[in-house]
From TrEMBL:
A family per Pfam: N_methyl
Occurrences of domain DUF1559 (ranges): 36-313
InterPro entries in UniProt: DUF1559 (IPR011453), N_methyl_site (IPR012902), Pilin-like (IPR045584)
Membrane-spanning intervals of the chain: 12-35
Organism: Gemmata palustris
Keyword list, A-Z: Membrane, Transmembrane, Transmembrane helix
Domain of life of the source: Bacteria
Protein name (Swiss-Prot/TrEMBL): DUF1559 domain-containing protein
Amino acid sequence: MRRTQKRSRQAFTLIELLVVIAIIAILIGLLLPAVQKVREAAARMKCSNNLKQIGLAAMNYESGNGILPTGGIVGGTNFGTYSSYPGSQASTMAFILPYMEQDNVFKQFPQAYFTTPSTVAPWAYSTAPYSSDGNQTGPLPGTQVQIKTYECPSDNPNQNASSGMIDFYAAGDNCTNTFNTGSVCIDYIYDLTGTMAARQPGAGNYIGCAGGLGGYMGLANDSYRLYPGIYYVNSKTKLTDISDGTSNTLAFGETLGGNGITRDFHMAWFGASGMPVAWGLQDASSSQWYTFSSRHTGGIVLFSFGDGSVRGLRKGISTAAYRAIAGRADGYVLTENN
């Protein structure tokens, strides 16, 4: 007669279960920062690649046209009243579309928007139907396209602003076509809702560098170092104009738009123009619509230089060094001692 021996199975006690849960929680806590670091590293790499493509597209544009693309087209005498001046306000990002494998988008726009001087209406007020908010906004069809290469994956600009977009940007101007050292002239359009929602312009994180304060030469001295850069309103910069060397001069950089974490405005990729460096470099907590800025960790903001190379500058860079590399022909070169 065979005897079978029964073995009793013991379940986990409550204490053992809590210990296991605690160990798992600790492991997740240790793993999460590593995952976030990997994710941010991937986002920064993609952002760097975007800037490199933009920089090389500008160089390819120069090869075909003899000059670098303009920092934005503006005409007339009064920047403050959209109805009183011509000029499409098309930005550098719009000009390089064919060199960014976006020729299908570029062909949607009338070529009059890319001629200088231009007599067409500003792109953000060019077509009906207009919005009912008093801003008379009728963005040019095609400007609503969201171009991933113009967006930093650390930010997702098409979802992270509450009020609207900056559609025109002139460094060193007081909106009367007169230079003012403390001014940046902008025009902005409110966030479009309702029947106009489908015409919301596509946002972007990248903009050309206008130098210290755009194309103005009056402050080009050792006290201020507010030298003209490569991309400013109506610029027609040649490579020979960049006497500091393309590898030493800022061409494009990142921007988040306005007012820190509670950002209310982005840049529209079709508009804007060139960003000055006169007011420093910022991270996401203190970004302004008139500063280069980013969401990358460590206060890093990525820039494409004139030769297409991409490097990061850290918030806290000295004013002298930052302005020196923004100017295209000031005789200053960024070194470790700056």
